[in-house]
Amino acid sequence: MSRRRYVKDYRINEYIDEKGHVTSESEYIGGDYRFVLPTARVHGSAKRVAALGAVGWACFLVLACVEGTAMRTIYVALPFAFSALPLFLLMRSAISALRAKDGPLRHDQADSIAHTLPAAALWAMLLPGASFLGCLISSLAGAEEWDVLFLALSAVMTACGALCFAARGDFATKKR
């Protein structure tokens, strides 16, 4: 279903080339989209989101490589492991916003930036936050040792996701 989402935005033009072969090209006929805010502000917000996403990825990779008691608990490890997908989507949307020029955006680009980024930021905040709470509860309930590194870095990941989610309004788009 999602593969055919933007089919109406393109038209297929067929023609015969010099060698007699039928060649087809796609032509974008969908509407033009623009950012609601000035492009300079969007680029500034995209740089901040990309930097926060890079910090989130650094925390994720450190915690994935360091062995600790938190990653042996299923209700801590699962939300943490699934936080890689929102981090990826967050970075992809931020990079797309950075690449966007003053000119118009295609429909799929506008959706990727304006709709994917807020959802990815929300999940990049909630999943490490759930892991943080799970680790804190298991530590308070009498775990053998406190996993201080996991608590600190998952709190940093949660804060990065919250700051990205707070900037979601800067990436709004509208049809021209």
From TrEMBL:
<feature type="transmembrane region" description="Helical">
    <location>
        <begin position="49"/>
        <end position="70"/>
    </location>
</feature>
<protein>
    <submittedName>
        <fullName>Uncharacterized protein</fullName>
    </submittedName>
</protein>
<feature type="transmembrane region" description="Helical">
    <location>
        <begin position="76"/>
        <end position="98"/>
    </location>
</feature>
<keyword id="KW-1133">Transmembrane helix</keyword>
<feature type="transmembrane region" description="Helical">
    <location>
        <begin position="119"/>
        <end position="142"/>
    </location>
</feature>
<keyword id="KW-0812">Transmembrane</keyword>
<keyword id="KW-0472">Membrane</keyword>
<feature type="transmembrane region" description="Helical">
    <location>
        <begin position="148"/>
        <end position="167"/>
    </location>
</feature>
